[in-house]
Structures are given as structure tokens and as C-alpha cells.
Amino acid sequence: MTSSPLLLLTTAILLLLLLHLPFHDSSNHDYRDALSKSILFFEGQRSGFLPQDQRIGWRANSGLSDGWPYNTDLTGGYYDAGDNVKFGFPMAFTTTLLAWSVIEFGDSMPSSELRNSLVAVRWATDYLLKTVSQPNRIFVQVGDPNIDHNCWERPEDMDTTRTVYAVDAPNTASDVAGETAAALAASSMAFRSSDPAYAETLLRTADRVFQFADSYRGAYSDNSNIRDGACPFYCDFDGYQDELLWAAAWLRRASQDDNYLKYIEMNGKTLGADENINEFGWDNKHAGINVLVSKEVLEGNRYTLESYKASADSFMCTLIPESSASHIEYSPGGLIYKPGGSNLQHSTTISFLLLVYANYLAKTSQSVNCGNVFVTPKSLRLQAKKQVDYILGDNPMGLSYMVGYGDKYPQRIHHRGSSLPSTKDHPQFIACKEGSIYFNSTNPNPNVLVGAVVGGPGEDDVYDDNRVDFKKSEPTTYINAPFVGVLAFFVANPYPS
Question: Which segment of the chain is annotated as a signal peptide (predicted)?
């Protein structure tokens, strides 16, 4: 049977159209399902005594003696990634971003997921309160990472040294103390309506911890007794100054105390506010500070802080390809790319700032002047949506980078608990080096860490699903934390305006 010329022409046109379509129809994404899973992930990262309602059933109690060298209780909190160490610096940042997700986008969450988000925040804040429970001392880390990284064992089996790292005044820890103050202040806002007494405790403690951070200025990794434990993993590479401004901005937002605004005005220049660094992550808060402080300016409260809004505007312009100021790197498939590994941490944090700033602009009916183009809140939201949809599967690999979401996702993530058989399936102890056979195996992980967002592909959009390649295959709490807020927005606004 021969085809007619008209049929051949129609087929050719359809093929051409298909070639120019996105990789997948992003309207098919179930943002609510992704949101639920992104929050569930944190239960897989829990340390300490697990509660009765623990939903990730292959995890069990771990780190139950944490704090014993100081005769103090440091159980709880989160393992930051695929290892069994509790690093205070990224954990505090994770907490701030989880709380900020609730503050900005909690109204977009289904009530059950709002409740789960607050549970995730509280698992962290209960621990952070323990780390600052003693006067003029902050516990910044539990676990020796060099020894821990030499093993491949379940957190439930840990027999490595649970070294406790503490900083006592007048030694310096402005970065960790500042981020902890920011986390507690932001969390106080998240709990204000559901648990006002707890919120008050968080805010009061945040103020005290900020005074410690500001009184003894310097980085925690400058201390010789901390450096070998923190570096090169979560060393302070970018200085402690941004955490002081970040903490002050959050304390201002949570307390509405004008003294914190004055602090930002008086200390901004000396603490690097004018550097306009377009970074946002566990180590560098500058872009986040600019967005957060811009809210004051947009609402007409403080024109003396106009430079922060100008920096936030400038950052947004760098993210818009149509802008003459655009200079951020994108992969061929459209993913925001920054060298250094664990790339999706940049995509999720930047997407979060895009949506937060879009909200601030929309509430005051403003847009951003990027020279050759005016960028509206809708433009910023659409830019964030491209990143979200890429992560969820609209990419050249056709792969969801969130474990357990979609039909195709990473199977061999760099994560001890996920890659080793659970204590339920294998109750026998697995010692430090005995886990190596599981690490080196090419088999999929036996336990699915639902909701984990991995480090992601390289600049060429390629992902090999290799457990050994930790830069690509390791999930972290600070990749997921901002993604909770981002997904919450798209649950309520799948087609942003």
C-alpha cells in the first residue's frame, strides 16, 4: 500500500514539530507527589532515636551516644549526605532553607505536607538547640569525617569515633553560630502559629547565639582543633562575614526589632555587602541576603538598604538568558551549571531565590530593569520552572534526579544506608570495611531513599548512575531543603503567571 503525497507531507510536518518539542511534557509532572517525596527524604537522614511514625522503615536508631565525650546529649539532627557525620554548618543552612520554604510557600502546601515540613524542621531545631545549650560554647560537629569516610557502614552499625567538635569563647565560630542563629530565627517564624511557646524559645536562643557569633568574629575552621574535622569537607571557604549579615537579617524578619536593621546598615560595608557575590549555598549567603533584605526596601521600610535590592536585581538579570547582563552558565539541556560538583545544589537554591523574589516583586507590583529587557515576576517563575522540570525528568537523559519520582531515576546513589542491606533484612553487624563489597557492587541499592535529589549531571547533561562518582550520585540535605519550597509553589501554581 503506497502513501499519498499529502500523507507523507503531514507526517514530515509532525516529525519536525516533534523534534522541536521539549524532552517531555512538563505539564505531566505531579508536583504534589514530588513535594511529598522531597520532605520524606529527611526521614532517611535522621540520626538518633527514630519515632514510632518513622515512614522510611529501613532506617533504625543510630548515634545514640553522641555527645558523651562532653557528658552532654547531642543525639538527633541529620546526617548531611551519604555519610554518617553530623556537620553543623550545612545542617544549620538546611534548617534555615526548610523554615524559609514554610514561611514563603507553606500556604501552597497541602496541610499534611505542611505538617510534615514542620516535623522536618523541628528534627533539626531540637538538635541545634542542644548544640548551643551551654554558655559561650557551640558544638559544631559530631563524627570524625576522615575516619568515617574510610568506612562504608550503616549508621546503625557505626563503630567509628564519634568525635565531638566544640568551640568555646573567645575562639571563633561566627559562620556556624551565625547560620545557627539564622536557622533558629527563621524556624521561630515557621512555628509561630502552631507552637508559639517553642517559637519564642527559638527566637530567644537565636538572639543569644547571634551575640556569640558577633562578639568573637572569625571562622570556625580557623580553629586548629576544628580544622582537621571540618576541612576540606565543610571548611569556611568564603569567610564568616556573610553569616553575620544573614543572621541579622533573619533576626530582623523574625523579631521586627529595628536594632537588627541598624546592624545591617552600620556593618554592611565592612561585612562585604557591597561585593555583590552571585552565590547562594551552605558556605556563601550573599545572594540570599540580598533577596531577604530587599523585602524591606520593596515594602518601603528602609531606603538606606537600596543597595541590597540593586544587588538582588543584578543577580536576577544574570539568570535571564534574554538579558544583556546574563552570564550564568547553562548546560545544553538548560540546567544551571556551576563547576565543582554536586551541581543541583545550585539549581535548587537559585530556583528558590527566583520564586521568593518573584513573590516580593509581585506583591509590590514591580519588575526588574535588566537594561535591554524588563523582567517580570512571571519571567522569574518560568525560569525556575525550567530548572524544576529538568530535575524531575525534562532533560536529555530522560531521568528524574529525584529518587523514587517517575519511572526512571538513579538506582546507585552514593549513600551508605541506602546501598547496604537494612538491619531488618540483615540483622548481623556489618563492620567498617565489610561494606566495601556493597560500595563496589554494580547492583542497584537495596533500599530506596525516596525523595533524595542527587548531585546531578555534569555540564554535558550526562549522568552515569555510578555510586563511586559521589559528586554526581550523592544526595545532600541542602539540595533538598530549598526544593521543598520550590515544589510547594508549583503545587499551587503549575502554570505560573
Answer: 1-26
